[in-house]
């Protein structure tokens, strides 16, 4: 896709010169006066998904299946703005197999059906993880269990195969293994690693591929965005898997960013993995910042500077994906700030998503929209309806 790369480069150059300062100036006003809500009625009128389609990219969202069923404003945004959906929780082990051997697919099935109706692809998340395991299997930290290694291997194989088989042919990308490494690059001491050693990863990919040969199989983790020991450990793992002929297709960069840290060298890191012959994706993007902690302020950025920095980070993360040819999808981790996991897990940080607590689009939405519009060739720019005088 040389065209996409050329246009995306254009987007980076243009936005470096024009977009970020312009949006930053408008944003505090927009935030205060609710102008962000008007953004989707702008001249182009295109949704994120329509723009992304033109550059062969899936822009996706993590979906709360309860809210999808209950809130028409929420489900309207999901259907209109996104070409891909991921269940935020509904495919995790604790939810699909609350009792050993008894599966409950209801919530996940409903999401897959809704995706089909909306012509969206589905990212499956996640088959093997240390977290959100059912109580019968492990303690809440996912580090202790009463099962023997032999039993655990059987349990893992049965689960991976049952879940991958259930959704066979309906999942575009599966996060087969999630978060296997610590930040220092050592293996996380999950029940899986302790009992089975690093070989559990290769096993899981093989089982998943047997059960669903159509899905692209991913290793997914956070902080891979930065050069460092964790990213290096994942890189070596992937190379090793490839050398052994294990069916791995992609690497997911969760991209949970915070403005208290510098922006990662995301483009370079994604390209490094892509150069191994893999797809890459940003799988759980959110950009948190310092906020108040009092009731009602958890999603109010501490200052205009915090807000501007968030906008710049959203823009740079999208541009990183647009600039890496193998970056096939960009998924944001939720719709509105009211339902984001961030304030609960990172006290004092929030406002991490593209829509506010009332589900009005924030300036962050406008930034992403504009980057995609530029990448798509800013189609109205020279046209009759382009608004140029
Ligand atoms: C989070 C969900 O957003 C929360 O609703 C849930 O309580 C905990 O998990 N990395 C992942 C995601 O891979 O599955 C996590 O999602 C966020 C961190």
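Q: What amino acid sequence fits the structure above?
A:
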């Amino acid at each position: 896709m040389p065209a996409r790369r050329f246009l995306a480069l254009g987007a980076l150059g243009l936005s470096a010169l024009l977009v970020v300062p312009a949006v930053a100036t408008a944003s505090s006003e927009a935030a205060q006066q609710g102008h962000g809500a008007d953004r989707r009625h702008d001249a182009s009128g295109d949704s994120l998904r329509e723009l992304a389609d033109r550059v062969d990219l899936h822009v996706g969202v993590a979906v709360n299946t309860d809210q999808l069923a209950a809130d028409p404003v929420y489900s309207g945004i999901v259907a209109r703005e996104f070409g891909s959906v991921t269940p935020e929780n509904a495919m995790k082990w604790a939810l699909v197999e609350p009792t050993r051997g008894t599966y409950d697919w209801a919530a996940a099935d409903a999401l897959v059906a809704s995706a089909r109706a909306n012509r969206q692809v589905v990212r499956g998340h996640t088959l093997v993880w240390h977290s959100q395991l059912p109580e019968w299997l492990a303690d809440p930290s996912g580090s202790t269990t009463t099962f023997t290694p032999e039993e655990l291997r059987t349990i893992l194989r049965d689960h991976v195969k049952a879940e991958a088989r259930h959704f066979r042919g309906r999942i575009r990308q599966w996060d087969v293994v999630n978060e296997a490494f610590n930040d220092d690059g050592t293996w996380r001491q999950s029940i899986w690693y302790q009992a089975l050693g690093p070989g559990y990863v290769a096993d899981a990919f093989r089982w998943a591929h047997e059960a669903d040969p159509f899905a692209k199989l991913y290793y997914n983790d956070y902080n891979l965005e930065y050069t460092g020991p964790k990213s290096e450990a994942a890189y070596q793992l992937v190379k090793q898997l490839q050398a052994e002929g294990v069916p791995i297709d992609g690497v997911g960069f969760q991209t949970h960013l915070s403005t208290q840290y510098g922006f990662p060298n995301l483009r370079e890191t994604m390209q490094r993995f892509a150069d191994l012959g893999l797809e890459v994706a940003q799988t759980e993007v959110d950009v948190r910042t310092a906020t108040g902690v009092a009731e009602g302020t958890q999603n109010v950025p501490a200052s205009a500077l915090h807000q501007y920095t968030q906008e710049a980070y959203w823009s740079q993360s999208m541009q990183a994906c647009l600039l890496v040819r193998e970056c096939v999808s960009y998924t944001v981790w939720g719709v509105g700030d009211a339902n984001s996991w961030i304030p609960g897990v990172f006290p004092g940080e929030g406002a991490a998503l593209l829509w506010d607590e009332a589900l009005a689009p924030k300036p962050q939405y406008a930034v992403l929209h504009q980057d995609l519009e530029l990448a798509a060739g800013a189609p109205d720019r020279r046209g009759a309806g382009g608004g140029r005088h």
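Q: And what stands out in the fold?
A: The chain has 14 helices and ten strands.
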